[in-house]
């Protein structure tokens, strides 16, 4: 019988647990203990008071809804743009100037993406001044507000700068890997139409292969910090910004709120990840 400790995968998994899983688990345990009043500066014995005070306020719920709204709309718009781009620009995405340029946004940190959007869409930005010079608006300050706006348009645009190139390349790769073009030719040979090719062949295959990546990106956008911090509105804030603001406040009564928000976020992420791995298990692969 083989000793599992001699298997390199055993030590790789043990290292992963030690470096990645254990610190997160310890942090969540401490956050839970703090939120129940058993540790920290506000410890007073086990109590539900902090949870009751937090969950009965609308701030945390509006923050979660705002984060879900931004993440969902971002991924919906990403599919609406990336899918036709990947299908109509198949060859340019593989070679030439576009094939090189499409990789550049993927190298941008989120802070840089936020800075680009800020420079483009503020009242004195790169778009406002030409609009004012052409007489389309009275002054640069009259340019449509997309920074710190109520609908979080600036935040969504910054995310789209990264997600659209990624999904365009990803769907193009799926298109080739699943031989969608050959299947479409077969559909036409058997009497189908271009619409049948799109509706019954290309879309179901690409959507099935892209579901896992979509859910993982949803988690990433839902919990993003830099872009919402720089471009997002002050109320309601996205959950990551709200959590850090509460944690850094001088009012010690706000720290349990930060820990509770982090715990709720962790539960939601764990639920989505469970769904991701279930779908990946059904596909027999992690969407790739």
Could you explain how this protein is built, in words?
The chain starts with 7 loop residues before the first helix and ends in a 5-residue tail after the last helix. It is mainly alpha-helical. α3 (58-88) crosses α7 and α8 runs antiparallel to α9. The longest helix is centred in the first third of the chain and has 31 residues, at 58-88. It has one domain (62-283): MetI-like (MetI-like fold). It is built from twelve helices and no strands. The protein is globular and about 75 Å long.
Order of helices and strands: HHHHHHHHHHHH
Characterize the main sheet. none
The CATH topology comes to: MetI-like fold
Shape: globular
Transmembrane segments: 68-89, 101-121, 153-175, 215-232, 257-277
Keywords: Cell inner membrane, Cell membrane, Membrane, Transmembrane, Transmembrane helix, Transport
Subcellular location: Cell inner membrane
Membrane topology: Multi-pass membrane protein
How do the strands and helices of this protein lay out in sequence?
Blueprint: H1 8-35, H2 49-55, H3 58-88, H4 96-101, H5 110-121, H6 128-133, H7 153-177, H8 180-189, H9 194-222, H10 226-231, H11 239-248, H12 255-283
Helix pairs in contact: 1-12, 3-7, 3-9, 5-7, 7-9, 8-9, 9-12, 11-12
């Amino acid at each position: 019988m083989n000793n599992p400790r001699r298997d390199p995968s055993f030590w790789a998994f043990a290292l992963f647990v030690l470096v990645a899983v254990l610190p997160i688990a310890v942090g969540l345990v401490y956050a839970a203990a703090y939120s129940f009043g058993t540790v920290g500066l506000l410890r007073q014995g086990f109590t539900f008071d902090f949870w009751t005070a937090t969950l009965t306020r609308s701030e945390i719920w509006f923050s979660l809804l705002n984060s879900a709204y931004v993440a969902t709309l971002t991924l919906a718009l990403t599919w609406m743009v990336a899918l036709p781009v990947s299908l109509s620009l198949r060859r340019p995405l593989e070679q030439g100037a576009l094939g090189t340029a499409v990789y550049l946004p993927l190298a941008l940190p989120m802070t840089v993406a936020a800075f680009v959007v800020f420079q483009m869409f503020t009242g004195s930005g790169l778009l406002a001044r030409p609009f004012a010079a052409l007489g389309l608006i009275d002054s640069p300050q009259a340019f449509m507000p997309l920074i710190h706006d109520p609908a979080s348009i600036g935040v969504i645009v910054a995310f789209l700068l990264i997600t659209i190139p990624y999904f365009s390349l990803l769907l193009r790769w799926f298109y080739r890997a699943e031989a969608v073009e050959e299947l479409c030719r077969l559909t036409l040979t058997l009497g189908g139409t271009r619409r049948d090719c799109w509706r019954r062949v290309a879309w179901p295959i690409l959507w099935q292969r892209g579901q896992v990546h979509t859910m993982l990106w949803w988690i990433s956008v839902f919990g993003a910090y830099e872009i919402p911090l720089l471009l997002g509105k002050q109320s309601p804030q996205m959950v990551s910004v709200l959590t850090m603001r509460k944690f850094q406040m001088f009012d010690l009564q706000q720290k349990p709120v930060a820990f509770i928000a982090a715990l709720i976020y962790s539960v939601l992420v764990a639920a989505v990840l469970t769904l991701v791995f279930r779908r990946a298990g059904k596909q027999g692969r992690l969407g790739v």
